[in-house]
Design brief:
Chain lengths: 219, 186
């Protein structure tokens, strides 16, 4: 086969493949449960709400915080840690801006904002409280046993690791940088990905809330 | 000549006068040239040896301005109370040869490391860089979400408006002190 015909073959293969995939998607995916279109967001809308498991954590006042404490308002969760100098403060700043934007655009939704520590060894309730309220007085921190944090993180599709640093003297923390939207029944409805930017998030959240409302009216 | 001298003594007298005048003009020219030279030489010395302190400062500043590096927008993120770490950002322009940032130090932290934030396997990871290459005739940017200087164990929180000196040590070019301003980006 000449180079030109090989090239043509690849092009034809790609076109046929794409058309096939799109048709399959229309046949098998869209028709799943409802004809209300799922909004395209920078992240994932969970068509099947994901139920949070039971867990036992501590809030910034070292009071017990359980799954039922999410059941009163919409919640936005960011998993991070206070020792983190770059990614987490940036996310917290965007979350504070998001709070102001949503308060203006969706006054009907009084959301609560949480930082869930993935580094409980350093993040005591006092420490996390001091940290989150720097960004907004109303922000809440959650910390506690790493296993309990893991239950919440796993359901939110957040992966996190603690590894010894190269010099062995300290440790390094890695975590997914996402924002999790939890409804007032304690179910995850959407997960937003980096880049987490307040204006885009406010727009996406607005569309998810509209979608959730339409779906629940239909049921 | 013989014939001129004998027959016209008056003419001979005029020739002698001409010669004297010629010599005089030559001497004057030599003196002027010597004076000009002397003035030039003395002037050159005075610029170096009798320079005012202001002049010397000006010269020193010119030397810094001529540095191969330009440090743009150096800032430190203001820290929440009780925080142990901070991140600092700037962009380093380099008009010279390729170099490498080896390390940084500051009185504002027990340790300063060069870090980079990046997404790996679905997680945001922060990893320490041994060195940061600064390309020839290029710019390396330290920005939020990318490379940054990480201040570890800060003795006090960074309050907006304050500033902190950071010494950046390059492999070839040596050390440079850069003044970072604390900024609140909330």
């Amino acid at each position: 086969m000449s180079t030109v015909s090989k090239f043509l073959f690849v092009i034809v293969f790609l076109v046929v493949g794409s058309v096939g995939a799109m048709t399959a998607r229309q046949v098998f995916v869209v028709d799943e449960s409802t004809d209300i279109p799922v909004p395209e967001i920078n992240g994932f809308v969970l068509q099947q709400p994901r139920v949070l498991p039971e867990f036992a954590l501590l809030d910034g006042q070292a009071r017990a915080f359980a799954r039922s404490d999410f059941e009163s308002a919409w919640s936005l969760l960011y998993f991070g840690f206070t020792y983190c100098p770059d990614i987490c403060p940036t996310a917290m700043v965007e979350m504070a801006k998001l709070k102001d934007l949503l308060a203006a655009s969706r006054p009907d939704v009084a959301a609560e904002y949480y930082l869930v520590s993935v580094d409980p060894q350093r993040d005591t309730p006092e420490r996390i409280q001091e940290y989150v309220t720097f960004f907004d007085d109303s922000f809440k921190g959650l910390t506690g046993d790493l296993l309990e944090i893991g239950k919440l993180a796993q359901t939110a599709s957040v992966i996190h690791v603690i590894e010894p640093s190269a010099d062995g003297a300290s440790y390094e923390v890695g975590h997914s940088s996402t924002l999790t939207l939890v409804d007032p029944q304690g179910n995850i409805r959407a997960i937003f990905k980096e880049p987490l930017r307040a204006s885009a998030l406010a727009n996406d959240i607005d569309r998810v809330l509209t979608y959730v409302k339409r779906v629940s009216n239909e049921v | 000549m013989q014939k001129l001298k004998i027959t016209h003594p008056d003419s001979a007298n005029r020739i002698e006068k001409g010669i004297v005048l010629g010599w005089a003009v030559l001497v004057v020219i030599v003196i002027l040239v010597a004076a000009a030279l002397a003035r030039f030489i003395v002037g050159g010395i005075s610029a170096q040896e009798f320079a005012s302190p202001e002049f010397m400062n000006g010269a020193a500043n010119n030397k810094i301005n001529a540095d191969q590096f330009t440090f743009s927008d150096p800032w430190v993120r203001a820290t929440p109370p009780g925080t142990m770490t901070a991140a600092a950002y700037l962009s380093i322009g380099n008009t010279g040869e390729e170099d490498r940032l080896l390390y940084a130090r500051s009185d504002g932290a027990r340790r300063v490391e060069i870090h980079t934030s990046s997404e790996q396997d679905g997680m945001m990871r922060m990893s320490r860089l041994d060195t940061l290459p600064v390309p020839a005739d290029g710019v390396v940017q330290l920005t939020s979400g990318g490379h940054h200087l990480m201040f570890i164990d800060i003795p006090a929180t960074f309050v907006p408006g304050e500033s902190v000196i950071v010494t950046l040590v390059f492999e070839s070019a040596g050390a440079r002190d850069v003044l970072f301003t604390v900024r609140d980006v909330r």
